[in-house]
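Margin note from the TA: students keep mixing up input and output lines. Inputs are the sequences; the output is the structure of the whole complex. Example:
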Amino acid sequence: MQEIGVGIIGTGFMGKTHALAYRAVAGVFPESLRPKLVAVADIDEDAAKRAAAQFGFARASSDWKSLVTDPAVEVVSITTPNRVHKEQALAAIAAGKHVHCEKPIAPRAADAKIMMEAAEAAGVVTQVGFNYIKNPILGLARSMIVAGELGDIVSFRGIHAEDYMADADVPYNWRVDPSGGGGAIADIGSHIIGMSRFLLGPIVEVIADLRTVVGSRPVSPGAAERRKVEVDDIGRAIVRFERGCSGSIEANWVALGRKMQLGFEVTGTKGTLVFSQERLNELHFYRAGANPREAGFVRIEAGPQHAPYGNFIVAPGHQLGFNELKTIEVADFLRAIAGGEQKGPDFREAWEIQKIIDTAIQSSKERRWLAVS
Amino acid sequence: MQEIGVGIIGTGFMGKTHALAYRAVAGVFPESLRPKLVAVADIDEDAAKRAAAQFGFARASSDWKSLVTDPAVEVVSITTPNRVHKEQALAAIAAGKHVHCEKPIAPRAADAKIMMEAAEAAGVVTQVGFNYIKNPILGLARSMIVAGELGDIVSFRGIHAEDYMADADVPYNWRVDPSGGGGAIADIGSHIIGMSRFLLGPIVEVIADLRTVVGSRPVSPGAAERRKVEVDDIGRAIVRFERGCSGSIEANWVALGRKMQLGFEVTGTKGTLVFSQERLNELHFYRAGANPREAGFVRIEAGPQHAPYGNFIVAPGHQLGFNELKTIEVADFLRAIAGGEQKGPDFREAWEIQKIIDTAIQSSKERRWLAVS
Amino acid sequence: MQEIGVGIIGTGFMGKTHALAYRAVAGVFPESLRPKLVAVADIDEDAAKRAAAQFGFARASSDWKSLVTDPAVEVVSITTPNRVHKEQALAAIAAGKHVHCEKPIAPRAADAKIMMEAAEAAGVVTQVGFNYIKNPILGLARSMIVAGELGDIVSFRGIHAEDYMADADVPYNWRVDPSGGGGAIADIGSHIIGMSRFLLGPIVEVIADLRTVVGSRPVSPGAAERRKVEVDDIGRAIVRFERGCSGSIEANWVALGRKMQLGFEVTGTKGTLVFSQERLNELHFYRAGANPREAGFVRIEAGPQHAPYGNFIVAPGHQLGFNELKTIEVADFLRAIAGGEQKGPDFREAWEIQKIIDTAIQSSKERRWLAVS
Amino acid sequence: MQEIGVGIIGTGFMGKTHALAYRAVAGVFPESLRPKLVAVADIDEDAAKRAAAQFGFARASSDWKSLVTDPAVEVVSITTPNRVHKEQALAAIAAGKHVHCEKPIAPRAADAKIMMEAAEAAGVVTQVGFNYIKNPILGLARSMIVAGELGDIVSFRGIHAEDYMADADVPYNWRVDPSGGGGAIADIGSHIIGMSRFLLGPIVEVIADLRTVVGSRPVSPGAAERRKVEVDDIGRAIVRFERGCSGSIEANWVALGRKMQLGFEVTGTKGTLVFSQERLNELHFYRAGANPREAGFVRIEAGPQHAPYGNFIVAPGHQLGFNELKTIEVADFLRAIAGGEQKGPDFREAWEIQKIIDTAIQSSKERRWLAVS
């Protein structure tokens, strides 16, 4: 299959995850474009060099600008802190590159809109890192909803809660820098908002309540000096979907004990689905109308009957891991670049999600219901 | 131990549950007043007679008024539809009886206030059927919170979801009659609101969104004619507690597949507790500061170390059932009548809960945050 | 309904449990004979008097012999240590009483046989306290198996593990006294053996391995002096059922952390059932042939559709507790006395179970397969 | 890092899994030898060519013999049916190659011994595909046991049950061919036996019962003609470990509904561990001596604190999948080749496991306890 040159900016958590996924994808999806790891850039040049050695990039540098203009780079993957996504993505788009960007793509919807418009004008393919929805078992969930197997949807309850910011001594960092956008509502709230759209479509109205729980954080690890935190640690919203049903969403990064409580319960007139990323290979399904004697939630385990699970493992029960969700994301991206189906989520979808985040932040400030404009 | 005369009004689901609890209590709590089942009343006299035969009441009638004035009746238990609680309770109070009333005690807080004031003026003991908080494992939860073992509480998420009204052909009945108050938010929302107060204390501010999902219901079982439903099937609220933390609450009686999803997750700076009535003998506890290698949620199973479990069963692992929660409720009530600790929840607490329900209903109408007055 | 006089021997764990069940039964099962608590006996007369006051027995004494001959006593309930069951049961049978005896009814099958023959010759009804199989959800399990819904049964795996003897400083007591029969294999192994028979019918062959883990125990609480333990702490067996399938059984009372791990997995050619008493209101069911996309184990929750759950609670999701299983046992016993269906387990069934226990003990000694004679 | 040439024989389920793991390892373990995919062989040459294209092997053929003698191949990975492992492994060893072989390495312990001796004589490194024990959370389990955190081990209960042979119309295939060794006891029993040794060390005595449930299978998919099955569908054993404790083991490939019920419960005098591959990122741990009020099993979730999880993902909660266990296996193998720690399991360990399987098969035939010689 044809090769495609890839450059990755950033070598932190997501930088590594992207590199692993680009390395893995052609082995799992034989029909995929074959990524060629051309270049990696990091503000810390040594980190870039280490990543190049580890993952097999041909070039490493501290200069992301030369990466995006590198003629051998056809795809730019952006895994840097949120506040620099825009500049990097626009530069890559200007250079005619396809862009794979981590979420949220920008601090504000207005920025996301500029990025989306630039990409669409340039005709490049974009992909945003809402990796969790790439889970085959969530593909099943969505297909059941779309096919009407749950009847009319009447209720949604979604949450993304973790505890990585629960300790008041976690230092001030880019995640709490308001120039990067919101706090928990943006960082992980974007995942559950995106998941709710993936399953149920547009959200049209929001009332939100955002709370800062840890009022200040050390300016650096162990520092006595503390800096005031202005973004939310917990964001709660009640929402109305365009399709008519209502729901609730919580984003919480001080949820002590929770490492990946990303999940939902969606109820329709004919069925209910329950999912938690804590057990990412399971989907729980209740179907109305079964013999009451033996009715109940079915624990569906992911298997090769749920594409593309079978690309990874031919037998059921073996289970996919998080990194493989990222591989599916990359496969979808490369398929779109090759002219196949555009599954997204792309910059347009990221913009839609960002509008909901912005609306939630504004709603919390104004303490009232707001339409998602 | 001393006997006490008991009269029960109503012989439906809760009437039977009360009768079983009054029959059981003295065997489980040897120090308790011994209930003497004096009288039972039901609008359907045959039902009353059947209940008398089944549970051993000395007298049965269709006339609740004579029951509340019966000199041998010292305690009146009210298990009738919500809209008649007030009249019956006031009559019982006027007759100087202690009153055990199912929840919600009245359609509106204003009514509950009148009932509470009457009871306090008369000096009778009152008890309201928020039975779930009588669970020994929830006593443990509360004691942990009160003792500060969870640190400062930062987040609450509560829900009570069932599906007994999910079928659009469930006929119009007293539960959806607006003269009885709200819909799901009142009928089961009262449980999770009461539980949140039991654990965390007063709620001072609410924004709620109440939705009617099943717009009309048959006027009677199987009838073609349908009647418009005006109360909520789903109620969602974001709340602020007096202690400073925020939370969310959902009441939902169209939650297909859920039979008793009454539960919460409460997070503090030092620990988290998770509970669901679906597994009512378990409490999940995460304590900050454990060795990360082996940290995680502990599944605590109810046992005799969690009083008063040991009154029922001397060995762990055997598990209490729902009816035994009601027995604990009765034991608490009789203890208060005998001059012991007043654990409640009494009419004052029911009034406090009802104010939150009323505020939620009003907040949903006005689509804005409201203080709980 | 007609009354029936009841006398209980023993006021420990099971004595109290029986007393509660006899008190409760008529309220739950309106068609039941109504127990009249005539007499209670305990070797400790004060304990007997306390029990009489608590549960409402008319008479209390330290003399079980007068209890069994008391003309007002029609049913004798035996809840004493295993080694005295035989003498007491035979005396009760000789006096023409119906006998409700805790399990195991005797230290050896030979003793159980004598008891069974005496009861059958006298024409009295007997009931043995294998209470767990009275669970409505297990009634469902059995009915599915009997109806062939699981196809041909191919495999059984059963366990009863708890940790009440795990601490090496639990003193020597009647449970480890070899004159009472076996150790774990008799005390709790009898439950899972009985459950396997309840579900699948006779066991015809056994190879067992019994192990003593705690070699000696203090002669009394806190004593330095220790006494050698001769009975098993862990019993494991591979078994063959008459119907052709094979299975395994484990009894273990040193299973640290386990409070009630009584459960099984039974597999057939058309379905599988999984149960654990740790979640006694749930049964997990897999049915072959479902659409693979959504196949999986269904979590069936006990409800009124599973008789006699509805006698206790008219709504699903509320859950039964252990004591209510005992109430069902008593109801079944009284129904049989009144001339209704004899559901057992009676002394004959207890004898069958005891033969398997004896065979397992002998098999372990001889280290070879033995037929259950 | 230095490159190492890899050749893989077989392109089925395990062939693909190996290829993915060799492709992934250097990106995850930067210090690892870097595999160079030199050659792939499959009896079906087209399959070999497809695999070469998919995974990036330089050469493909139907001739495994030329692969093992290919000078550029330094490591030979054998993923063919069990019965041909021996010939291929011996050829690879003779050619001085390091050998990575799927389990079981041979139909009989005698064959495994020959393979082990050849490898040791040749000084090549061997690795056997008992991938499940590479799970970081099982590394934690083992380290707890080794460190004595569970006290003296008193009990083990292990199982590996799946349902891939449950359908009587699954055709006769190499898995049921007796020339390949046993049935379920060999195919998946080897996993749980290996896991028991990984955790607790040698098994010295066995009594087993092997059963054929599906007596005949179609000679080919859909064929009317059926062939008699001689190997076991279910194998049960009671075992004694050298360290003194006893245990049980079940292997079952007709366990309808079970896709990966590979797990254990190991109990000591100070703690208990429970694991199931159905939730492979969780380990449940009970520690004796906790405050009874809050004691219980802790659900430990895999995270970067459990090496080498952090090589894959730097954050907790994200979860590893099955393929990543294989990557860890490959990393361990390459580390040993590079002169680092030999973690195994190697051919010697495979031989030890095979001896237990052989003993179980023989024990079942003789229907008696046998020592593992």
